[in-house]
Amino acid sequence: MSDGDSVVEAFASLADADWVDLTHTLEEDIPSVPTHARYGHTLYQSYEYGDPACHYRISMGEHSGTHMDAPLHFVPDGEAHYDIASVPLDRLVGRTATIEVTDLGPDDRLTVDHVTEWEAEHGDVEAGDRVLFRFGWDERWDTGKAGQAFYEDWPGLSREAAEYLTDRDVTMVGTDAFAIDAARAEGFPAHYELLGNETYILENLANLSALPPFSLLFTFPLKIAAGSGSPIRAVALVE
After folding, report:
1. What is the number of structural domains in the chain?
2. Would the pTM count as exceeding 0.90?
3. PANTHER family given for it (predicted)?
4. Is 191 a catalytic residue?
5. In which band, very low, low, confident or very high, does the pLDDT at 77 lie, cut at 50, 70 and 90?
6. CATH no. for residue 101?
7. I need a labelling partner for 36 at 20 to 30 A (CA). Which of 14, 26, 101, 126 fits?
8. In which domain, by residue range, is 175 found?
9. Which of 73, 81, 122, 191 is catalytic?
């Protein structure tokens, strides 16, 4: 069998899988870090105005909506795979563990025990895996004033939990909350631990409730030179 036939066969085996969209829609007045550029969508051409095409200008920060953090976001000095344009393509697709921690409340910290208890039931997180944490925080996502609860007192990872995951050599760590560090965490310990070990961060994910313990995740950022991060379209394949 040729390499081409192997690729076709691999994709054919996924034909009966379900696609799950893990991405919030980019629209005006979505939750945003107060110090970051807000998402804007400005009409430039319109059929109603007699133009031959429709065209909008998009303005936003690198960390708008569902997005990926590159090491550059928190690490001042880096080498290979440092900015978002340098992320190896093979890091963007692969097996993913989704761990439910909806018992955690505002500003709580996820511990190593949360991960090891999940592993005891579902199997070990392995090197190269991606790990997503479902806090249920995406249910607070909304536009305008209604979305304010999304960026108030969200839970996140403890330093020890982040260290446990980097020791396992995972590729990415994601959350459906506002950020991987809890709202009042001092010094961004999870950001520094993960990004400092070239473990990419996914934030503001959606629909993690639709994922089983393991799935196949696709996360493609824009190829931004010297980018500290990028919005992504995150989707998962589920048997």
Report:
1. 1
2. yes
3. CYCLASE-LIKE PROTEIN 2 (PTHR31118)
4. no
5. confident
6. 3.50.30.50
7. 101
8. 15-27+62-238
9. 73
